[in-house]
Amino acid sequence: MTRDRIISRFIDVALLATLAIGMWMVFFYAPIESEMGIVQKIFYVHVPLAWNAFLGFGVVFVSSFRYLATRDPRWDARALAAAEVGVLFTTLVLITGPIWAKPVWGIWWTWDARLTLTLVLWLIYAGYLLLRRYVESPERRAVLAAVVGISGFVDVPLVYFAIRWWRTQHPQPVIGGGSDSGLDPRMAATLWVCAAAFLLLFVALFRRRVAIEQMRRDVDVLRDSAEGSAA
Amino acid sequence: MSTLRTAGVVLWKDLRIEWRTRDALSASLVFGILTLVIFNFALDVNTPEMRRLAAGFFWVAFSFAGTLALNRSFALEKEAGAGRALALAPVDPAGVYLGKFFANWLFLLSTQLILLPIFMLFFDVPLAGERVLALLASFLLGSCAFAATGTLFSAVAVNTRMRDLLLPLLFLPTVVPALIAAVSTTAWALGGADSPSFWFKLLIVFDVVFVTTGILVFEYAIEE
Prior knowledge:
The structure holds 2 protein chains of 2 kinds.
Chain A: H1 3-29, H2 43-70, H3 73-105, H4 113-133, H5 138-168, H6 185-230
Helix pairs in contact in A: 1-6, 2-3, 2-5, 2-6, 3-4, 3-6, 4-5
Chain B: H1 3-21, H2 23-42, H3 48-52, H4 54-80, H5 82-88, H6 93-123, H7 132-157, H8 166-174, H9 176-189, H10 197-222
């Protein structure tokens, strides 16, 4: 086995173990929240997904930057992989959020600052992935995607401040339900284990996606040379 | 050629083309008016509550109309193969970006200024005398934000298979903070109550950030 394979195997084992421990903690260790009840459990999936999605978008930015500087296709593959996993996680955040919000807030969706920010980020990076589909040449695609990957991330703090201020000027449609109002230590421990599990999930998916992209490029090179010798 | 001189030449070229064809302005104006008319059909706009939302209607109409104008920005270069010439020219790409950006800014601002009286007529919005300057500043800074991001993304989108269709998908989510700020400042200028000072600052920051980003990464968007 190559070193890469060993690392992948190690990450997979760690991921499964952390995920199993995390799920056990969610259902048997962490206390049931007194006001929200059992539905609060979704918090241990929702919040780690959101954190790791943001991490993914940060990786897109750094990889895009590195690609333009080095022109190494591996950086482009990393940007792509991070964007895909980031959009996947953001989609799950946007699905798990309303499932929790309906029983607790009484509504599926509200234009609250964090919800809106997540939605706008999803739109920005969905656009990034769409762009990648519509450019034939791999080099062109990598460069154009990097341009969008960089300007998209530059936009994030601006979106954040705009939406926060925009929201504070309006009456808040819902009260309470914040996670920052002091967390039970057992809840906090569960959250951290789940965050680690989803970080490992992110890394595992990311590494596989990068490897697939690498394989695809190798196949393209082989096909090109085969066609070249046939002609 | 210095960067600014390059910008001037590109700007002058775009202005002359626009003056002769009037492609971007006429299309975006008609589309803007159309959007305002559709609002009138879809909603009963002549009620006091709706008038409070007038700034929002204006910026939605302008967002779509402006996207149309921005789409034209690199279409000519693509069709005539002039984009390759621009990329190959021994000039600073930042100058090309700035020239294109200023041209788009002027087109967008003209669209807004021509749309404004029509909008006031349709929506029965009075223009408060002392806040005209704030309205102009809102238009100036808002269209600058649209032009700065739109010029960059238009150069990206024109090189894809989707061409025109991709620009709004990339450009509108990115411009969200500027749009919120522009609507809020315009709302204040049209007689709103909420203080616009934060929003003016945000618009200025957005403009500076995206003009700088454009200057730095534009060369990658046009390289072949």
